[in-house]
Amino acid sequence: MKLSRRLFVATISLASLLTSAQAFAGSVNVAVAANFTEPAKEIAAAFKAKTGHDAVLSFGASGQFFTQIKQNAPFGIMLSADEERPKKLVDEGFGVASSRFTYAIGKLVLWSKDPNTVKGEDTLKAATFNKLSIANPTAAPYGAAAVETLKALNLYATLEPKLVKGNSIGQAFQFVDTGNAELGFVALSQLMLNAGGSRWMVPQNLYTEIKQDAVLLKSAEHNEAATAFLTFLKSPESRAVIEKFGYALDPKSAS
After folding, report:
1. CA distances from 138 to 42, 95, 145, 220 (A)
2. Could you tell me the pTM of the whole model?
3. What is the DSSP letter of 110?
4. What is the C-alpha to C-alpha distance for residues 183 and 25, in angstroms, rounded to an integer?
5. Backbone phi and psi for residue 102, each to the nearest 5 degrees, phi listed first
6. 206 closest CA partner among 231, 224, 185
7. Which residues of the chain are under the pLDDT cut of 70?
8. Which letter does DSSP use for residue 62 in this model?
């Protein structure tokens, strides 16, 4: 009888602790560059399990998020696909200067679902395809890197009429995945769960390194969940996830 009573009390105490932890748990809205969709989901789940806080993720093009944040969209953190926009947010008074860091370094890939289509830069030079998918270079850094690559190969003028532009790198990937374009420039991270097709890892000397920066927004400067998420993003656990999805890491950004 005494044992049962002790178990009952212990159960009630544990429930009280869990309720108390949940009461103090917070949330933060995070604007996430589309190329980082899958890693962000995995990191947010681990963050929730470890802290109780919720990271509410929205995915899209960095340029669109930049504009929305300047129009007071309710985001607390931006995980951009470049370093330029987080720096601008700091310079223009929207971001916390000390919070900005490079959370990932992206890699550009030319990809087709057809295993015989992509054979390096020769595929682009032959130009036997009808449609080449890229992300909008104005809004999406991976799109800008694709244009930079084509110009470095002296192929942009020739291939420009064949370009189809997605609003984000996510849509650029979908164009290829659904067959609306025979091939396209995508992020390596988007292919880590997709072993099929043919691909060419674009050499780094053909485009500017894609440093992807995170920044805490002034509106969330005192949001415990926001500061905790950025700290967690620098942790070995998060960095292992980021590396798993094909990104390079900035050694300066480790916690």
Report:
1. 28, 21, 11, 27
2. 0.85
3. E
4. 44
5. -85, 110
6. 185
7. 1-24, 195
8. H
